[in-house]
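Page 37, top half.
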Amino acid sequence: MKSEGIEGCERFLSPGKGRGVRATRHFQVGDLVFACPAYSYVLTVNERGGHCEFCFTRKDGLSKCGKCKQAYYCNVECQKGDWSMHKLECSAMCSYGENWCPSETVRLVARIIVKQKFQTDLTQSERLLSLKEFESHLDKIDNEKNEMNQTDIAALHHFYSKYLDIPSNAALAELFAQVNCNGFTIEDEELSHLGSAVFPDVALMNHSCNPNVIVTYKGTVAEVRAIQKISPGEEIFNSYIDLLYSTEDRNERLKDSYFFTCDCTECTTKSKDEAKMEIRQKLSTPPEPEEVQEMVSELLEICELSLEKMGSVFVDTNVYMLHMMYQAMGVCLYMQDWDGAMKYGEKIVEPYSVHYPQYSLNVASMYLKLGRLYMGLEKRTQGVKALKKAIAIMNVAFGEDHHYIAEIKKEMEEHK
């Protein structure tokens, strides 16, 4: 099959960035720029039983695979649709039992190898970029990443050698590097991890810390929607990372995972850095970088205990404080301390609205978490207000007809 392209978009050489995607027509905020089915995907093990292995539908009463009894499906049609991929894991899981434990990346790569065996033509996922064109950046990978790749290669051989015609180690090293650099995490409306996938056409978009599109998911299809007005000839930019952090932190993450430094307007102007890194004015001397790093490391381990210490240095809108409070909120949710979780959510949501772009899913998911907490604590007025703010963002990011939005509206009705 010859690549047919995507209406409204084209592949081009972006100055200083290499390949990219640009618009060939006008897009308004909320418009669907394009959709891309996953070339290959895998449901995370933790969501088995709650989501269909084939279409990722979330529902009760799913039917399990009669052989391995670990994969769940909506119906016979979904089970048949997934069999070409699931049969690989089904046999392996039956053989290894409780000892079957390949990583999600290994599972995804195994499925890609199977797909490449029987799919020789370009797919609907490769209208602008083929999977084989993915950059691997093998020459830039450090020893630690190389060791991780070698561990994954060994695991692939261990768990799949009886059921899969495995390529050479050199080809596997290339493929694992390609997937690590170009793979996507499929998430739900609260940004919870559902699975991993490759979407070649989506991967073609270059990064900006001031993106004009957002990627969301409808089942196993990635949808790219405009969050700014886009004119013909303009490049279409996605964000590869969490945009909460300072310019220096963002670029460290980009360099570590994607091997480039961003030069977008947000990075060159650093317009939000002052607010993101603000410290308390009453301090006689600012903390040394080593002190800041020490406190940031502490928050990952003892977020509650470090609250008082960090609060004497950072204001509540500082990104390190926000990160610590987000961790603390997670602990409260785990402990079912709903009032504590609500307290942290209230402190987080407004700074998030300032630091993140206008239609950020991080902001929407925080309003959603907060709204559901309010509803559970019988604070319906506050709950409805928070959920409506989440929906306003999601209408643009997901599209007004997405089932996540219908589910939230149903929740609001049920709490009347």
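Page 37, bottom half:
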Amino acid sequence: MKNETIIERLGILADAAKYDASCASSGTSKKDSRLGKGIGSTEGMGICHAYAPDGRCISLLKVLLTNHCIFDCHYCVNRKSSNVRRARFTPQEVADLTINFYRRNYIEGLFLSSGIFKSSNHTMEQMVEVARILRDDYDFRGYIHLKTIPEADPELVYRAGLYADRVSINVELPTDSGLTRLAPDKNAMQIEGAMGGVKSAITQSKDEIKRFRHAPKFAPAGQSTQMIVGADAATDSDIVGKASRLYDSFKLRRVYYSAFSPIPDASAVLPLKRPPLVREHRLYQSDWLMRFYGYKPNEVMQATEADGNLPLDIDPKLAWALKFREFFPVDVNRASKERLLRVPGLGVKAVERIITARKHRSLTLDDIAKLTVSIAKVRPFLIASNWRPTTLTDRADLRTLLAPKSEQLELFGA
């Protein structure tokens, strides 16, 4: 490692960080450098984005401090027993990389995680030092997200939250039994205890800011977590239930899902192939239903198939509607917002526009067609001034009619 350049180490440690999905920068407090004070900004002009190899738009330097690790989690490519190239940065090197990339307009902030080297406390101290250098030495006011370590001393986690916009602690797997089996060095109670500590610190910080204008802010963008999907036998019902409990118990901003990806020299207890990526997508859709559409966790679970997993060919909202057809059709000119949000194909903005427009005139099916991508998906579930679905809602083959048609790709297609 001593002979490797900064760029070579960056290639190793940025690639090792790609498995962590919980790096969104939404929800942070506004810190602006456009008046000439400090460096970096979480909003405004001068912020550009980079694109990851898989097409996702990102604007953060996403990197590990090191991929050395004393833990041996079966699903982790950086586990102790894994045969991968190892590398390590010093806190000063990560801080300098962040500043240099920001000045070149490549990024708007930093997402920093790490393998556990020497000890949890030592690793956490090094990560906090990165954030301290950026904030105190460089007066950096851009976005910082630190992946904290639940085994570390709570005081170190607290210090991380004083420098970072967001902190996160991964629960890793949906069930305690799965965690025990695949991550023997981790403890579910310890992880949730650390999440509870972060929640308390965020609540306390908000209270202090109300009373004292210059009280320090603690993780103003909140905390998030991530679950690996498909590494164990947990069903989508298990995952939805776990996510709901985490939201309620710890007031999380987001729960992220990461489809298990096979790794080199994998343990025999892991699946031989990854789950369909669309499964991860369906879980994000179910998460959206609970957060923005008023669905309760048990209602999302009702949309699952007999094996406890969400259908892959249709989205969870449509799956629920097909199971509870007695709820439909919904009259777009009279129904409440809550009922309209249950109509497959109608998003939050479309429903708000419907409610605004119907104050002035009665809406037709053509009016609704202008607000949705697929009127065919909407027609069976609503009533308009010139439309009633009659027997369409109850057709036995309705799922077949509404499921997206699979396309055969051409090898030499244009």
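Margin note: The CA atoms of residues 50 and 236 lie 32 Å apart.
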